[in-house]
Amino acid sequence: MADASSPPTDQLAAATLNNEVPKAQFSDRVPIRSIISRPDGGSGLAGLKARVGGWVKTGRKADKDAFAFLEINDGSCAANLQVIVEASLGELSQLVPTGTCIVVDGHLKLPPAGTKQKIELRADMVIHVGPVDPAKYPLPKMRLTLEFLRDFVHLRSRTNTISAVARIRNALAFATHTFFNKEGFLYVHTPIVTTSDCEGAGEMFQVTTLLSEAERLEKELLQNPPPTEADVEAAKFVVVEKGEVVSQLKAAKASKSEIAAAVDQLKISKESLAKVEERSKLKPGIPKKDDGKVDYGKDFFARQAFLTVSGQLQVESYVCALSSVYTFGPTFRAENSHTSRHLAEFWMVEPEIAFAELKDDMNCAEAYVKFMCQWLLDNCLEDMEFMADKFDKGCIDRLKLVASTPFIRVTYTEAVEILEEAVKNGKKFENEVKWGIDLASEHERFLTEVKFQKPVIVYNYPKDIKAFYMRLNDDLKTVAAMDVLVPKVGELIGGSQREERYEVIQSRIKEMGLPLEPYEWYLDLRRYGTVKHAGFGLGFERMILFATGLENIRDVIPFPRYPGRADL
Amino acid sequence: MADASSPPTDQLAAATLNNEVPKAQFSDRVPIRSIISRPDGGSGLAGLKARVGGWVKTGRKADKDAFAFLEINDGSCAANLQVIVEASLGELSQLVPTGTCIVVDGHLKLPPAGTKQKIELRADMVIHVGPVDPAKYPLPKMRLTLEFLRDFVHLRSRTNTISAVARIRNALAFATHTFFNKEGFLYVHTPIVTTSDCEGAGEMFQVTTLLSEAERLEKELLQNPPPTEADVEAAKFVVVEKGEVVSQLKAAKASKSEIAAAVDQLKISKESLAKVEERSKLKPGIPKKDDGKVDYGKDFFARQAFLTVSGQLQVESYVCALSSVYTFGPTFRAENSHTSRHLAEFWMVEPEIAFAELKDDMNCAEAYVKFMCQWLLDNCLEDMEFMADKFDKGCIDRLKLVASTPFIRVTYTEAVEILEEAVKNGKKFENEVKWGIDLASEHERFLTEVKFQKPVIVYNYPKDIKAFYMRLNDDLKTVAAMDVLVPKVGELIGGSQREERYEVIQSRIKEMGLPLEPYEWYLDLRRYGTVKHAGFGLGFERMILFATGLENIRDVIPFPRYPGRADL
């Protein structure tokens, strides 16, 4: 009975006794963050021993190759730790290339006066080297464009920018769960594979096993060709023959055992015929029905299935029982769109609140966005400073603004009036402004960036440009929908109060020319114990673009999927 | 400029001033949890006003129809609140059916001595009724089987069991994020759509737009048939004719403008020919290559794409830069399996730790499982008590045991010896026990339920039954893999130290008969700055089965997907 380790708390105690910096809980090394991200920059740890590991960002030999100076990073924070290795400890040429992984035991010491860092590590022993051949390494030290890095999604998290984005993304995800948990919302996993077609199958990916089944069958039929008509006839002939044998034996009053043996033979030949007949019907290719259409009854889920475009409709079934719920998961669009703002696979946060109206929905959206902004300021400032330095000077001020300023709220009608006024005063838009249009990105950005210079919620949109499930207002012209617009990205959130009145939603579905049948389950939520409820969706990558100031959505998701590309 | 609401903090202050129970942040009502889940059961709130909303669990009229007594539940906690409504406030017959949604304003009062609940609400006004026709409502008050409820996934969250499961599932998800965040792990969203085939395409769902594109084209060609050969010939003839006109005009030295007009005509006829020729090539059906195989170059991602079976390989690219990461997302298996333990879509938690070995991996797995168990005891006891009462008497004791007892750790070889010993002593297994077998569920459950009666980690498995990426031990016979076995479900976690040595992993891939090319990116992680790392996967639904004691995995995920079924 081997117990391979002592419990972590003992390790911690032992570490302190040994004059060492406490290790990470499930590793033998100290995260660089625990050294450098202290208020004193790590200087208070001088004299202590530590094992650290990381990847060399920059390395150089000095003092006639007596030492190597290595800036190493382990991803636990943006900052690097300087490690000094003496030539006697190892082959220094192997340590200095960018990308090399090293683990060293050493002791922390104060660097010479006048250097930027507050602490450095003098190595006592090199424990591990994961070398790099600089001639082959795809990510040399020079600055690489984000576009170039998209061809190396498996290595790009080693760069300062993509690792900062990873930490910011992680922080926003945890902020999301923390916010909704604090407010009593339950996290509901809505399905990824769906048979509810919410926004039109044209833009949905299909999920199927028919193609691979057809390929499997084709291969099998090549190896083992299906019986021909002649094979079937031959098998039939055997059955007739065996049948005749039985008849003859019976007529000849043969022994019971002889007859039984012949009957067994007949049975076997019948089974064999059945198999041959069944195999003779096998057709290569996708199974089709008599009308020539694909027979989805033969697909894995016995019907057409798609990747979800939104968890909203499904999560509504949970809000009508649990009052406050949210989803946070991947969603998909098969749009052939090559812009810097669209992905085929992206993550959405979709809260839904019962006993709530549009104003509650707006309050929730505003509180959530503010919470995320403040969270980044409190928990990710070092990474935000990196983004401000390299990409977008204003990104920290933008977070502060949004975290602290009440959002402006204007009706759609007011928004259109503001835009028309701007046009009168000489502002040029590519898209015409008039009541009834769907606001274009240029209109949204004008409102939030130019007119108000802060987040804006536009609400009560014309019903004709919005979905059937949005609650019809008493004017019968508008619906209780709202969009949250923020500087830099425009629309960040779209939401609405949902139509809870059975007759109204039924007639809205018909009015939009949609069939009722697929929505019967959704109508049940209004038939039985209906409740006022409201919700919204936040595009998670949009939020990261907003926070970081990056321009291309492909750089803020670890593994971007878009037309023609799904690496790894 | 309409600002539809005052900020929530003002609402709270106002509520207290008005002698009201504070409302939910984004709703006008008080969650029942805020009343009932206090240490005093709510009795301290007697005398305060409150607006509550919920769905009637049981309702009855009393005192010659002078009152209705309604037990209502809003999903915020397991307990119901009793609401008493006087006949003067509304049509009582409409309020009492199970499933009815009501919102009432009222005041809290102490119930008569001797009743179970500590507080009840006397209604002053009925604000909203969402009625139910009991003759049609699919979920009557009587106890329904979980199997029956699977046909009503859109309504089943209204039952005590499924809503308790939803709260337990939510708690475990939040515990997961809390644990890994606390330990410095970054949450990484690995892709759902993948072109890396990790465990064999046979069990993967394909993601495609080819079928819907083919259907779209077929429809289009029906409405607008493709040109025939005769149409193409006719178009060619027009081009020849127009060309001749130009030649004739030139020969006849016609005016420049006349010639130019004829050239324009020729150009138009050529364009028209090009279009006709292109359309004549359109073929209905799935696009095929010359060899008859499906032309996936025409698919959305320009190659075959699948739903992920695990985020491990992809997240390894992040651990080799960020040190401690985890994924938590949906994964898929197209297995035609109808058991109570398999789903086609399920959620997995997959942490990955750099600078770590198998013992660190086991420490992490043990700490994580213990953390979740303690979390449920601390945060979900009421729901756990419900599960203990209705389904599995031992479930709370099991959580306590796992939260407090060190997990047993045995090598695979020791485990096989224990099983062989048991066989010698008369224990019967369906599957033969000998070194080299993959442990069957019956073996795993014997170890954890009978032999040790606590969680067991089995490690160092024979290499031939494990994946290529698991680190080869020095004995060259076993790999550094581990499984965590727990009472009730058997295997809860599977993990391993990953093979970080380039030559070893390359030869392991070849040894297993796999092609190297698709793994080149994965090999890059070993080529450039390789690092020791380890990780594991926890089936999230398995954990919920373990916690709740439920028997069927289809009852612990909101929208179960399995062969033939993907409702909603």
Automatic annotation (TrEMBL), chains A, B:
Enzyme Commission designation: 6.1.1.22
Annotated WHEP-TRS domain residues: 231-287
Alphabetical list of PROSITE patterns matching this protein: AA_TRNA_LIGASE_II (PS50862), WHEP_TRS_2 (PS51185)
Catalytic activity, reaction form: tRNA(Asn) + L-asparagine + ATP = L-asparaginyl-tRNA(Asn) + AMP + diphosphate + H(+)
InterPro entries: Aa-tRNA-synt_II (IPR004364), aa-tRNA-synth_II (IPR006195), aa-tRNA-synth_II/BPL/LPL (IPR045864), Asn-tRNA-ligase (IPR004522), Asp/Asn-tRNA-synth_IIb (IPR002312), NA-bd_OB-fold (IPR012340), NA-bd_OB_tRNA (IPR004365), WHEP-TRS_dom (IPR000738)
HAMAP family for the chain: Asn_tRNA_synth
Protein name: asparagine--tRNA ligase
Gene Ontology molecular function terms on file: asparagine-tRNA ligase activity; ATP binding; nucleic acid binding
Keyword Nucleus in annotation: no
Similarity annotation: Belongs to the class-II aminoacyl-tRNA synthetase family.
SMART domains linked to this entry: WHEP-TRS
A GO-annotated cellular component: mitochondrion
Stored NCBIfam families: asnS (TIGR00457), PRK03932.1 (NF003037)
Lineage summary: Eukaryota, Viridiplantae, Streptophyta, Embryophyta, Tracheophyta
Domain (Aminoacyl-transfer RNA synthetases class-II family profile): residue spans on this chain: 325-558
Keyword Protease among record annotations: no
Biological process according to GO: asparaginyl-tRNA aminoacylation
UniProt keywords, alphabetically: Aminoacyl-tRNA synthetase, ATP-binding, Ligase, Nucleotide-binding, Protein biosynthesis
Enzyme class: ligase
